Fold this sequence. Notes:
Helix 3 packs across helix 4 (about 185-195), helix 5 (about 225-230) packs antiparallel against helix 8 and helix 6 packs antiparallel against helix 7. The protein has helices at about 5, 120-130, 155-170, 185-195, 225-230, 240-250, 255-260, 285-295, 300-305, 325-340, 360, 365-370; strands at about 25-30, 45-55, 60-65, 75, 80-85, 105-110, 135-140, 175-180, 205-210, 240, 265-270, 280, 310-320, 345-355. The chain starts with a helix and ends in a 7-residue tail after the last helix. It has about 375 residues and is of the alpha/beta class. It is globular and about 60 Å long. The protein contains twelve helices and 14 strands. It has an eight-stranded mixed sheet, sandwiched between helices. Strands 2-3-4 form a three-stranded antiparallel sheet, with no helix packed on it. This is AB hydrolase-1 domain-containing protein. Keywords: Hydrolase. Pfam families: Abhydrolase_6 (PF12697).
Amino acid sequence: MSAISNFTACRRFQNGAALTKDSPGVGLITNKFLTTKISTPFPKVSLVHSKRMFKGSNIRMTMVDERLSSGKVVVPSEVLAYELVQGAKVKWSYIMEGSLPEPPTAVLLHGILGSRKNWGSFARRLAQEFPKWQFLLVDLRCHGDSASLKKRGTHTVASAALDVLKLLGQLRLTPRVVVGHSFGGKVALSMVEQVPKPLARPVRVWVLDATPGEVRAGADGDDHPAELISFLSKLPKEVSSKRDIVEALIQEGFSRDVAQWVVTNLRQTNTAGSSPSPLSWVFDLKGIADMYQSYEETNLWKIVEDVPRGVHVNFLKAERSLHRWALEDIRRIHVAEEQAVEEGGGVEMHVLEDAGHWVHADNPDGLFKILSFSFQGF
Length: 378
C-alpha cells in the first residue's frame, strides 16, 4: 500500500464520481460538482445532488445513480473538488479501484485566487500526448468549488497540502508527479514534507515560479497579490458586470491580464426575479488572505536541502517573473542540486523563456516541452 494512501486512516471514499459513455480519446472524471466524461465501455451513470442531512451528522451527501446496479450508491463528499483528466489508454476509476492497475498519476495545483480550471487545457494536452497517464486537478481549500466545503483549522500552506494528501488517500492514488504553480508550488513541497518517508516510489515535484522560502514582491508596476486580495475584499459580494470589475481593477493599477483572470472567479447567482442575474465570487477571500500570508511566511528550504531519497524537486523560474528571485535563492538551489545527487535524491533548476508568472498561459509550448520528460517511459 502506498505511503500517501497510508497517510489517512480513513479508507472510505468521501466523494462521488459519475461515469458516462463517451467516444475514445481524453476522458474526464469529476466529483459531485461537475458533469463527467470518460472514455470507457461502461454503461451510462448519472450524477444527482442531495442536500439531505443524515441525523446527527453535518455531512452533506451526494447520491450517485449508478445504472450498473439496481440501487444507489451514497458516499460522503467532504473533500476537495477535483477533476481527473485521463489519457485514452487509461481505464481506471475509483469505483473500479482494485480490479484495475493504477495508472501513472500527476497532480496539478493552482496558485492563489486560481482554480483547477487554470490547468484544464494544459492537462488535456498532456493526456493526449501521454495517453497512459491521468491528471488530477483540484480546487484548493477556499478556492473554486472547494470554497463551499467548510474546512477546520487555520488556512495555511500545510493545511492545503494535507487536504490534497487526504484526497489522494481516499482515491487510493500515489502520484508519480506533482506540479504546483506559485502558491501551489509550496503546497507540493509541503506534501513531500508531510507524507511518511521513504516514499513508496520516486516522485518528481515541479515548483513553478516560486521559491521555498521568503516571498519577494515584484518590481514597481508589477501586480502584488496581497494588494489584490485587499482590494477585492472591499468589493461587494455580488456584482452586476464583469466588465465593471475589470475596469475597477485597472483603475486601481492592476494589469488587464490580471483583472480578466480574477473575474473568472465570478459566477451567476440564480436569484428568483432578478434580471439580469447578479454575479458572485466563488472563493472564500478571508481564507485566501490567510493562505497568502502563510505562503509568504512558510519556509520549506529544509525539504529542498535534505531531499528524501527517491524524490526529485524541479524549480522553474519564469524569465519575466512578477516575483523577485534573489541571487541567494538561486545559489542555494544549485548547492542543493549537488548535495541531492550524493544522497539519492534530485534538485534541478530550469528557466522558462518568454513567460511571466502565469507560465502555463504565457508560454504553454515551452512549459510543455520542459515538463514532458517527467511523463516519458510509460
